[in-house]
TrEMBL record:
<dbReference type="InterPro" id="IPR005123">
    <property type="entry name" value="Oxoglu/Fe-dep_dioxygenase_dom"/>
</dbReference>
<dbReference type="InterPro" id="IPR044862">
    <property type="entry name" value="Pro_4_hyd_alph_FE2OG_OXY"/>
</dbReference>
<dbReference type="InterPro" id="IPR006620">
    <property type="entry name" value="Pro_4_hyd_alph"/>
</dbReference>
<keyword id="KW-0223">Dioxygenase</keyword>
<dbReference type="Pfam" id="PF13640">
    <property type="entry name" value="2OG-FeII_Oxy_3"/>
</dbReference>
<feature type="domain" description="Fe2OG dioxygenase">
    <location>
        <begin position="105"/>
        <end position="213"/>
    </location>
</feature>
<keyword id="KW-0479">Metal-binding</keyword>
<dbReference type="InterPro" id="IPR051559">
    <property type="entry name" value="HIF_prolyl_hydroxylases"/>
</dbReference>
<protein>
    <submittedName>
        <fullName>2OG-Fe(II) oxygenase</fullName>
    </submittedName>
</protein>
<keyword id="KW-0847">Vitamin C</keyword>
<keyword id="KW-0408">Iron</keyword>
<keyword id="KW-0560">Oxidoreductase</keyword>
Length: 225
């Protein structure tokens, strides 16, 4: 057994089942502290050790029209390739989630792309969707957080807008707020949920990834808007 297999062998089925059930029920899943701890530790150590030149300002738009836009997002990203123990363990874990979801939800997920993300203090990503109907082939978005000892007053929440939640006459609370705690996993249908990242008071580390229908379009594609 390789190191990578040891890291996430067993124990994932119950988690995958809850994610799958959440998706069926609501279209999204928020699972606090759910990423296997070894994997979360390996990834958080790796992201902190990544040299700063590996990170590039994230763009907005499709490959050839990709532009950096300070009004929409200010984070830096580093695309993940199958190199090194941490990245391989992550891609393998995502692949086992992909095959579970394909068996249980018939989503026809074909490939996976993901990047490390670093939001420095004050960085944000304004409300956007990760895919548009008929346009993208991103089906399912996955985000995991790698921040140890995060407290709610650090900010940096992910806000997911869910038009199916009930709103009262007094307060429009049709949104779900996720604190980017260590090991928290968020999965949602890419075309369905606008979402945004609020500015944080400290460095915020995460991985964002997308399961796609096929990989006919080159890598390094970012949300259209
Ligand atoms: O980091 C997050 O909470 C979400 C990031 C995101 O929405 C994206 O990269 O598309
Ligand atoms: Fe997004």
């Amino acid at each position: 057994m390789s190191l990578v297999q040891v890291i996430h062998s067993g124990g994932d089925t119950a988690l995958f089942e809850s994610i799958s059930n959440d998706i069926i029920e609501k279209g999204y899943s928020i699972r606090p502290y759910a990423l296997p701890e070894n994997l979360a530790l390996l990834l958080s150590q790796h992201i902190l050790e990544l040299p700063s030149e590996k990170f590039k300002r994230a763009g907005v738009g499709r490959s050839k029209d990709l532009v950096v836009n300070d009004f929409i997002r200010t984070d830096e990203i580093s695309w993940i390739t199958y190199q090194g123990a941490a990245s391989c363990a992550w891609i393998d874990w995502a692949d086992s989630l992909r095959s579970y979801l394909n068996k249980h939800l018939f989503l026809g997920l074909f490939s996976f792309e993901s990047h490390f993300a670093h939001y420095a203090k004050g960085d944000f990503y304004k409300t956007h969707k990760d895919a548009f109907k008929g346009e993208g082939n991103r089906v399912l978005s996955v985000v995991v957080y790698l921040n140890q000892n995060w407290v709610p007053s650090d900010g940096g929440e992910l806000v997911i807008y869910d038009k199916n939640l009930s709103a009262s006459a007094v307060i429009d609370n049709r949104k779900v707020t996720v604190v980017p705690n260590f090991g928290t996993i968020v999965v949602f249908l890419s075309e369905e949920f606008p979402h945004e990242v609020l500015p944080a008071k400290r460095d915020r580390y995460s991985i964002a990834g997308w399961f796609r229908l096929n990989n006919s379009i080159a890598n390094n594609i970012d949300p259209p808007r």
